[in-house]
Write a structure and sequence with these properties.
With 353 residues, the protein is of the alpha/beta class. It has two domains: 141 residues, NAD(P)-binding Rossmann-like Domain (Rossmann fold), CATH 3.40.50; 170 residues, Dihydrodipicolinate Reductase, domain 2 (2-Layer Sandwich), CATH 3.30.360. Helix content is 33%, strand content 23%. It is built from ten helices and 14 strands. The strands form two sheets. The protein has an eight-stranded mixed sheet with strand order 8-9-10-7-11-12-13-14, covered by helices on one side. Strand 2, helix 2 and strand 3 form a beta-alpha-beta unit. Helix 3 packs parallel to helix 4, helix 4 runs antiparallel to helix 10 and helix 6 crosses helix 10. The protein is globular and about 80 Å long.
Amino acid sequence: MSAPVPVAVLGAGHMGRYHVQKYAALPGARLVAIIDPQLERAKALAEPLGVRYAAEYTPQLGDIAAASVAVPTARHLEAARPLIERGIAVLIEKPLAPTVAEAEEIVALARRHRTLVQVGHTERFNPAVRAIDRLGIRPKFIETHRISPFTFRSADIGVVFDMMIHDLDILLHLVRDEVARVDAVGVNVLGPHEDIANARVTFRRGAVANLTASRLALKTERKLRVFSETAYVSLDYQKKVGIAITRDQNLDVLKLARERNLEDLSQMAGLDFGQLIHVEPLQIEDQDPLGTELATFIDCVRTGTPPPVSAEDGLAAVRLASQIVEALSAHRWDGDAGQRVGLQADIFGTRRT
């Protein structure tokens, strides 16, 4: 059996704490150090586990083969650079970077130093998403809703980079095509960044996506709907339940219509539609997405396998998020003749000065 991979966690905040907990319980990893500029915060996490702590990464911390970067997004490049340059594999929390330019720099660093970089788009490891992956459908329309109460943890960024970024990664993963057009509208209520946003993304080969994100809701809801020529899928991330309706398993409906020589489907109005179609509950394993993500990262470090969510994937999500933010910033609330543009108008129709 291979020796556990020595790993460090950079960032002892909200997400860093989760990473520390998961690594401490992961058989394939050996937690070596916790690093945070607020040394007391790092110390509070490290001492009960008997591991080292520091305000910044230095080679004196010892042998480290992998690290989670769970610092604020604005510091991702700064924190990841010395690790990547030393060949230390890194898992960088989502989003990869606050700007396209910094995301591109991280990708370039990883390539130059041939260092493994995985991006923490945890929803890729959600059992619901893995269930839709197994169906192998080619989406033509995707609709997502991701809403929750405000947590006050990410007030430095808007809801697109804070929450919608999860769905952008899933969208790009499922569609696998170039973005042709982006339209978006957003509203800022609590600060300078958008708190509610809706985006419509059109792809080169015709797929369309409608994405909604809000951090001003009174409840949490995370849903995904996908349809293609061959299937319709509905997923609830939160409840980990879903259904699939596939054409190949519903050919009896079409056959029945043909056999009756029906020219108008309204002639089947007396039939119970629910009894005619085949609805298949998706088999969704009860797994911990973050635990699975970190275990996969450690396995990639040990085996040299490319990560399932690469730095290039993270860059693609940041690029699309930036396009959406640009589109909502250019939205004209009153049409071409109006003066209210982007986030100047709030939900009450007034202007911000």
